[in-house]
Amino acid sequence: MAELRSMRKAYGEALAELGAANPDVVVLDADVSASTQTWMFREKYPDRFFNVGVAEANMVDVAVGLALAGKIPFANTFAFLVALRAAEQVRTCVAYARTNVKLAAGYAGLSDALDGPTHHAICDLAVVRSLPNMTVVVAADAVEVKKAVPAVAEYDGPVYLRVSRAEVPVIFDERHEVHIGQGVTLREGGDVTLVGTGIMVGRCLEAAERLKREGIEARVIEIHTLKPIDEELIVQAARETGAIVTAEEHSVIGGLGGAVAEVLGSRCPVPVWRVGIADTFAETGPYEALLERYGLGVTDIVAGARRAIAAKK
Amino acid sequence: MGFHSEDLVRDLTDRARNLRIRVIEMIYGARSGHPGGSLSAADIVAALYFHHLRLDPTRPDWPERDRFILSKGHAAPLLYAALCERGFFDSERLATLRRLDSKLQGHPDRLKTEGVEMTAGALGHGLAVGVGLALAARLDGAAYRTYVLLGDGEIQAGIIWEAAMMAAKYGLDNLTAILDYNDVQLDGPVHEIMPLEPVKAKWESFGWHTIEIDGHNMRRILEALDEATHVHARPTVIIAHTVKGKGVSFMENKSTWHGRAPGEEEYKIAVAELREGVNG
Question: B166 touching A, CB under 8 A?
């Protein structure tokens, strides 16, 4: 088993490092800096840190104003709040007005497990992905979070950066680079392709190991940028393996599975099995138990692969 | 306080009247738009664009310029008329309002129109965006000021008060909000739809310096804008009592003229009244 490392801690450290490297970076938080770990930035750069209190819509629009004046604002709170409570601010003032605001969406998916469905974020990707001008990035492990933060800051335009609360197995080494818009092939294989995002990438790698024992060679692709998605890599995988499984810590509606199906439906129709949360709210419970209960286990990916392969013509 | 000559006041009053005529022409030409709230704010916008704001039409991105955000973005025709008259673009463009391919969108779009600081019109955004600009100016040690024009119906939105709280927390004395208090919103009188009173006390209790004026008295507008620049460590709101549809008799105080265009006869009467200044 790979080493477990906290995604949110890695995010907080990366943001503080970015603050040293780039004086234009400013950070906003909506009374959850102890959770999102933006306190690390605040301690080093108090003048560039703004706590807006429990006022997420205001936070996003204030970030917009800062961006208009040339700052690079990272607006932080839980994913469900920035994507849903502040959705109209994000649509009008960030996406439509194309302001250089970075929406840092913490506690993504089911990772705030014990706080329950009020705090889970399982439909945020569907919302932000549908916004024109929006770039959507989902980090897979602590290393990738650290690489993604400066890449997002350098990228010109609105970005939604989704980060888990959880401690997640490390899958990348320090040489890993995040190029926004480019998928990453983590394992070669010709029978089926497992396309994962976020914490499900590590699970896809585990599933590929298990499938190998059954004599199935699974390719594994990481999509950290849901939008603009790496169409060519996905189409190539569909052509070469003929079956696709997507895996995401999100509803099966509108997230990675939706994005991949949209690409392949018009460019290379093959069976696509979507591993994700069925069209339902989850419940309170331990994180690992929730992931198993709501269809995000390694066994779910393995079963999906078998189904996708069986559906090949 | 600066001294404002009779000539200046008269010139700005004429400017406001010209803006109102432009507004009616544009909305009539587009067969669509919001005359009432454009007419009510015309004196305020004239004072800002033809006297108070530091702007350079040849350099819309001049870093030291004052920032004006039309938060009540449905008054877009008024903003477009002011930008045009101030020299940001040619007057031919005004006739393209709300047409396909036009740079003059139904509500302001910062990416399409020179001089438009912020996309707006979905109500409630401008004050929070203004807080961000004012914070950035402070971080940069920049002298520019930020002005936000709010509708009265608009301040029924909770985010306005989120932003108001924040502006006070950070003592943003480089931020001035102006409330176009015409007491009419889309569905009827503001005091019936959702009363704002005591509105002055509300802003004061949120930590703002308040100035209450007749929003059609040019001298008082100029004095209020000056006063706001001298307030220390607090944001200022100018509560400007105005008349919706100001200057056109049949539009005044009528919610039906919040968002409809005049027909041909109405257009002729409106322009004639504005030219004669019978109501101004």
Answer: yes
